[in-house]
Every structure is written in C-alpha cells, then in structure tokens.
Amino acid sequence: MPLTAPQRIAREAGRPFLVELWRALMPLRSTVSFMNTGAHPDDEISDLLAKLSLGDGLDVSYACSTRGEGGQNDIGREATQALGVLRTAEMEQAALRLGMRLYWLSESPQDSVFDFGFSKSGQETLKKWGRARTLKRFVDILRSERPDIVCTTFLDVPGQHGHHRAMTEAAEEAIGLAADPAYVESALPVWSVSKFYLPAWSGAGQAYDDDLPPPPATITVSGKGFDPATGQSFQRLGQWSRACHLTQAMGRWVPHGTEADWPLHLKLTNIGGAETSLISGLPESLADLGGGDALRAADQEIAAAVEAFGDGASVLGHATAALKLVREGAETVDPRYAHKIARKETQLANLIRIAARIDCRAWLDRDILQPDDTVGMTVELHKGLADSADADPVLPEGWEKTPGGLKTRAAAPSNPYPDRFLPDEPEAPFLSVDVSVNGVTSTSRIPFEVPPQIRPAVCADLSPSTAVVNLSSSRRSLHLGISSVQPEGSVASLHVPEGWDVSQTEDGFVVSLPRDVPEGLYKIGVRVDGREARSVQTVSYPHTAPRHLSAPAEVAVLAVEAGPTVGNIGYIGAGNDRVEHWLDALGFSVTTLSPEDLTNETVLERLQTIVIGIFAMRFQESLKEAMPALHRWVQRGGTLLTLYHRPWDNWDPDTVPPARLEIGQPSLRWRVTDENAAVSYLEDNYPVLTVPNMIGPDDWKGWHKERGLYFAKSWDPAYRPLLQMADPDEAPHQGALLTGDFGEGRHIHCALILHHQMEKLVPGAFRLMVNLVTPRS
Questions:
Q1: Of 766, 760, 775, the residue nearest 583 (C-alpha)
Q2: Is residue 256 helix, strand or coil?
Q3: CB-based burial of residue 704 (10 Å sphere; 0-12 exposed, 13-18 middle, 19+ buried)?
Q4: Phi, psi at residue 519, to the nearest 5°?
C-alpha cells in the first residue's frame, strides 16, 4: 500500500535538511573510489565504509556474491530464495545509510552463485558456484564500477567460512582479469584497480576461528572523529547501517570512546611511491584528473560549498558554479577519468536539488499491479529556491503514462534479485527532476516512495505450497486454498496425479489421495483458463519495501510412512520454524504454548511431549524462568525436545537443560556442513532411533544444505550421544543428538536441522521427528 500520512511524516522526520545537505556535500570532497567485497549481506565493513564515505567523501561500493539464502532468519520464516529476497531488501537499506553503491554477483534466484549453506572450503564454494561464472560476474562489476581500491572483508585462511574464502580468492584473480584485454568473457571496457587490500585483523569470533594470523598492517585508517551533521562516531554510523540486517540480529551499541582503527594490508598495487595513506598516489581531487583551470576552479567552489554548510542558499550558489565548471572541464579531462566526471555531475545535481529545498515525491494509488493495469499517480513538487523545477516520471519498458496515472500494458514481472542498487541512479520507475537555478540546469533521479510490484500475467496463489501425508495415519485429504487468480474472471483448475480426486470448495479445493498411494513426492499444478500459472510470495516487513518472488504455481506433496502419531504435544517457538505445522500435518494433536503455560500444572498434565523450537529461548523472554517447572514436569514422565539453539540465545548450559549441556563455539567448529556426511550410530537399538520408526541409511539421504549446526560441545554424564558424523578430513562430532533420562521422563536435544529438512520434504526428517516426539511407553 502507499505510505500513510504518518508513515510519510516519520520518513521525512528521519531525514533532517542539514543531515541531507551534509550527506550531499561529502562525496564532492574526493574523487577516490573504494570497493569492499564479501559473500553475504552483512559482510560489509560498515564502520570503515561509514568513515570513508561519510567522513572522507570517498565513493564507496560493495560487491556481494550471494543474497544470504542459506542463512538463518531471526524475524520470520522466510528461507532459501524468499530469505534471499528479504536480505536483498535489507542490504539496500543498509547501503542507503552509508551512501554506498551495491552490486551482486548472483543475478537470479536460480543463479549458481548461491548461499548453499555453511562451507569450510573456498575451493568447494567456487566449484558449486562455478569458478568461471563467479569470475565473469566479478569482472563485470569491476569494469562497471571502476573502483580505485578494492578491499576484502575476510582472509582466505582455514577456519574461515568457505564463501568468504572464495570471495577473497576470486577478488585477486578478478582484479587481474578486469585489467586484461585478452579476457573477453566480459564485453565491458577494461579497468585496472590501483590497489588491493586485505584486512590486517583476524576474522575469528563466535562463528569463525581463523587458523592463521592476519598479515601485517601496511597502513591504518583512523576510526577517530565525529560526523559533523549527526555528532556521531563513524562506528556508531556503521551500526546505523548494520541495524538494517534484522534477519541476522545485527546492530550493536558502540559507546563513545571505544572507537577502533582499521589496519589494512596492501596486497597488490600498480602505483609507485611511498604508501603513507589509503589514497596515496591516487587522484584525490578534480584538478588531479586534468581538465585545466576549470576543474581547479571547480575544486575551489566545492571547498567553498563545504565551508558554507548550514547556509543552503550559499551552498546552492557554489554548487551551481561548480557544476558549470565541471562540465567545462570535462571536455579536456583525461579519458580514463570520464566516469569520475560523470559521478561528480550526478553528485552535484543531487546537492543542488537538496540545497534548493526542492520538495518532490511520487506515489501510486496501488503498489501491487498486474500487466495491462491502470493506476492513479500523485506527484508533489515544490520548487523551493530554484528558478524553475520540473518532475517527469521515467517508466520501465512496457509502461505508459495516462491522464492522471500510469498503465502497465506489457510490463514485465518485478525482479526480486536486481543485480545492482545505486542510490542516486534508481531503476525505473522514478522521477526525473530538472532544476534550473543561477542559469544552470541539472537533473537528478528520485525513486517512487514505494516501488510498485508487478505480478505475472497468469497467476494463482496456492496455500500451502508444500504438504505431507503420513501414510501411517488415516488422513488422505488436503485442503488447498486458492486466491489472487489472474487475469480477473479466469477459471483455475488443478492438475493432479492419476487416481487422485479433486473437489472444489468456496475458497479452493479438496484433494483426496488414493488409500494405496505409494510413498513418494508428487506435484499438483495449477492452470488458469488452461494456461500454466505462477504463484507469488510477498516478502514484506516494516523496515523494507515489499518484494515479490514468483515460482510455478504448484503444491509439492510428500507421501511417507512416518509412523503412528500418539500423544498430546505442546509446542513453543519464536516464529522461526514451522515444526508445529508439520507435527499437525503428520497427525499429532498439537497445542501451541506460551511461556506462562509451562508453569500451569493443568496445562502440563495434558501433555506427554513438549517441543521448544529454534531460538525460542532468546525470543520468548520469559521462557527461561519457566524452565524449572518444565524440569519438574520431565521428572514426572514428560518428554522434552529442544531444537538447536545458538550459545547466545539465552542458552545457559547449567539452567536451561535439566543437566549441563554446553553448545560449542566458534560455531564453525561445531557443525557438519556436508549434507551427505556419513552418519553412524553410537547406540544401535536406542528407542529414539527405533520407535516407532527404524531409522536407517535411507533416512539420511536427500538432505539439504547441511546435517546440523550448533552441536553440543560437552554434556553431563546423564546424556547419551546417539549419532556420530563429520565433515571431510575432520574429527567426528557426537553432539548432534543427545538424550538423557531424568526421573520418569527424558530430555532430547537435537542440533540436526530437522525443521529445514521438513520444509524441503525430506522423508527421513519426518520419520526421525516422529520418533523424537513419541512419548516413552
């Protein structure tokens, strides 16, 4: 929906004029460009980038390989591609706060450059991504952005995430290829990066454990000083950006006086002379680019504009004079630097619009549209101090203007994986704003308040998109809801396997499976007026604009002999998994609990098993206080199942479990990332592995992403480890599945990612989950 008036007011209140003016002045102070590289959203060195961009005026950018699809989600249940869509939107917001240009190696949800889960090897990562594909895309980015300096976030050392290692290795090779005319996989003009830096600090911490020390520092970027517009340290401003990564719980408080410096190691350079600072030997100002007296005079006007900060009219006068001089000097500038002149023109146009107090915005009556749709549009424009101002919408291909609005005629569906995000060069639709003042006309771009989303021409949304049928139960019917059928007035129908029965309801369909349906994975497709339809998942949170992810409209149905489902189960989660949904689908009687329910004896006496979902100890704040009551319930005969938690998820090893159970960190050391890793049993006939299902070799086949993570490191003798597994060339882990008897009951701790495997319809995950929640006989 369009922004409400309160939302628009809140957005405006977060952008004070003087802060916006200073942000527009800063990039004019330097002609140096700096690119940071990483593997995931949140890998960027936010505080260093804040210092370079908001403090020193460097033109900063970030080249990121994946969208973070294989990571975790602290705020919801989006996973894989949907999580990638959400993290893409978060990364864009983080980039905005740094004035940073953003590029992605991954260009689509189906790209081979994908966050396939945790890796311990750079070589494994590049093999899965495709080395040639990775390098080509990396070279395209370097030749597009043309950075003077490239700096990786992590080192290529054992003990570091394999994706990080791959990006560091690829960066050095891509820099060489970008400058090589013989490399023709990229059709863009060659570009020679002047300097390549590595971090001269260790990447070890809660997650990683660098085995080798960092290289020696050759220069150090000072972290001291404060941003004049906000009064904040640059580390604090970096955290303003990191806080946009809510799915990863980013953002920490940096008290004043604790600011740190950034030591860097110069790995490669094609500049002679002493290395006294980050920008030594590089053209630092417009005058250094050639262009004679005009660019020297432009530098003086820019310096005067910075000096006049706070006086918008004075800044405006100097900015328009500088733009006129830049255009004059562009005619004789060294051709190697034409892109820097173009950037300065764009930056000056933004400064002129802000200094002139141009008030301009556009929004649509509706933000979710179909092809051949008509929608009203509102454009507000106040010319402020300008002599004249005009705002005209620039539309994507297939759109057209109508009286009072827009028509989307042949509009392509929205792309949830844009390959770049350039804050001052937004993709269409946007407003092109022409400002004339002091005899100088400049043009800048303003994105629509909420980017409109175009659905596919033929679509229908089915719910759910995945389902399981437990052949050990009597259930054989699925209710599938259907909505948002397009084109409007069309008729939707289901295409089901032979022998399956379909009946229509008011809001969808009931699909009945034959009594003798074999085990296996089946697909139910949707057709709209006989045409294959696509479904759309909307990914939307208050801190990001809505995004749409489309896929073939179909339901994947797993038929599996998962065993009988007995007992009443209680579930308490944090909204990060759907375990209660899958238990209900398997045939269990499931009650969703609050932490308060766990201290209610009447509630507890009705339950034989209680499941605590992932991260619940962290996000259910009163759950920790309820654990003593839950321990007493276990003593009386209850089965408690805890799914994996991180050490920082309020998991006190001495008070959360009934007996001591410590989760290992750094987490790289306490996980098995190979989804096909061999699994051996430490106790062959233990009930958790045999009742009601005999868990055998087939149950470990077809796993997705990894076996498990955040394994237990140590535990009280009351616990018995049941499984052993390892990544290649590593010692085996025994902390993936533990069970302990306490009084008449038991506690099972499972660090296998069963919740994810069930989402991916892995048969063995359902069979093992049934065993874990089945009460003791």
A1: 766
A2: coil
A3: middle
A4: -60, 145
Lookup: tokens for 325 = 């001089």
Residue 615 pLDDT > 90: yes
Residue boundaries of the structural domains of the chain: 16-30+283-355, 32-282, 362-454, 456-559, 567-773
- Render pLDDT for 179-221 as a digit per residue (tens, 0 to 9): 999 999 999 999 999 999 999 999 988 888 888 999 999 999 9
> Tokens at residue 618, please?
């962290």
| Interatomic CA distance for residues 5 and 380, integer angstroms | 14
**Which run of H or E residues covers position 37?**
strand 33-38
Residue 29: predicted pLDDT: 96
| Amino acid symbol at 287 | A
Domain 567-773 belongs in CATH node 3.30.70.980: no
In this prediction, residues 302-307 reach a mean pLDDT of 98
CATH of the structural domain 32-282, one choice from 2.40.128.110, 3.40.50.10320, 3.90.930.12, 3.90.190.20: 3.40.50.10320
Q: Provide the 3-class DSSP secondary structure of residue 363.
A: strand
If you ran DSSP here, which 8-state letter would residue 722 be given? Answer: -
SS3 content of the chain, % helix, strand, coil (to 5): 30, 25, 45
From CA 449, how far away is CA 317, in angstroms rounded? 29
Arithmetic mean of pLDDT, 146-175: 97
What is the structure's pLDDT at 659?
98
Fold identical between 32-282 and 456-559?
A: no
Distance (Å, whole) CA 589 – CA 773: 11
Residue 716: exposure state from Cβ atoms within 10 A (0-12, 13-18, ≥19): middle
Q: What is the DSSP string of 52-102?
A: IIIIT--EEEEEES---TTS--SSS---HHHHHHHHHHHHHHHHHHHT-EE
Residue with tokens 């640059």: 234
Q: Mean pLDDT across the chain, nearest whole number?
A: 96
pLDDT band at 82 (very low <50, low <70, confident <90, very high): very high
Reading the block at residue 660, the tokens are 């001591």
Instruction: Report d(CA 484, CA 458) in Å as an integer.
Output: 10
- Does 1 have pLDDT greater than 80? no
Tokens of 669: 């050391």
Residue 200: the pLDDT is 98
Is residue 2 pLDDT above 90, yes or no? no
Q: How is domain 456-559 classified at the architecture level of CATH?
A: Sandwich (2.60)
